[in-house]
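If your schedule permits, I should be very grateful for your opinion on a structural question. I have a record of one protein: its chain in single-letter code and its fold written as C-alpha cells. Would you kindly read the sequence against the C-alpha cells and tell me how you understand this chain to fold? Thank you for your consideration; the sequence and its C-alpha cells are set out here.


***
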Amino acid sequence: MGKDTKGFFRRKWFLRIISLILALFLFMYVNGSKSGFLRQNTRNNNQSSALMSNKSVTLRMPLDVTIDNNKYIVSGYSQYVKVKVTGPSALVTTTSNTQNFKVYADLSDLTPGKHRVKLKTSGLNSELTSKIEPQYINVNIQPRKTITMKVTIRLSTRDLDNGYKLGRPHSDIQTVQVTGSRDEVNKVNRIIAFVAIPHDAKDNIARQVTLQAIDRNGQTLNVVISPTTTNVSIPISAGSQSSSSSDSSSSSSEESEETKSSSRTSSRNDSSDSSSETSQSSSSISNEDSSSSSRNQ
C-alpha cells in the first residue's frame, strides 16, 4: 500500500498537473501585482498632472494706500479691487485660501491735488501672474485738518399731542474733534445730534445718537467725528394746558365761595337794617302815645 502511494506521487502526469497549478497561481499573482502597480502609478500621475495644471481664480482684495496720514487725506477711490490670479493649481488654491499678498497704490511722492495712479501687488508667488481690475485709480490728495466744534441737539418736534411739555435737552458730550480734508472741514457749519420725539411721549427720553457734520445747507459732510456718538436726555413734564385748567377750576371755586360769602353778608346787613327800622318805628309810636296822653290831662 505504501509502495503504491509513493508510486502515485512519482508519476509524471501528477507532477505535470502540480506544476501547471503552481504556474497558474504564480501567473495570477504577478499579473495582480502589475495591475496594482500600474493603477498606483496612474493615480500618482493623475495627481501630479492635477497639481501641475494651471488654474485661475478672481479674488476681492482690500486696497492699501501708502501716504503720510498725519498730513494728508485721500479720497475718490474704492476700498476694494478685483485681482485675477493664474498659475499652478496648488499655488492658486493656497493663495485663494490665505490671501497672503496685498494690492497697493504708492502716493508717498505725490503732491496735493488730483492724480491717476497705477495699482501694484506685493507678496505674490513668482510662479503666479495677476491682473488687477481696475489697473488705475483716480485719487484726490488734500491737506489734513482738525478742528473742535460744539455739539448742537436738534429735536424732531417741540410740541406733543397730549398736552405734555418738553424740557431742555442735555448731552453728555459738549464738544468733539472734526477731522478731514481741509476743504471739507472748512464747510462744516454745525455738529448735530438729531433726536426723534414721539408725539405721545409722557416719560423722560434717553437716547444714544450718532453725530453728524452738516454744512450751511443742511447737507452731511464726509469728515471723521470723534467721538462719533453722544447720550442725550430730555425731560418731559405736564404741559401748560393741564395746569391752566386746574388753575381755572380753582379760581372758579374761589369765586363761587366769595359769591356765597358776599351773599350771606348782604343778607345779614339787610336783616339788621330791617330790625333797626322796626325798632325806630316802635319808638316813634311810643313817643306819639305819650304826647297824646299828656295833652288830654
In short: The radius of gyration is 54 Å. The chain has five helices and 17 strands.
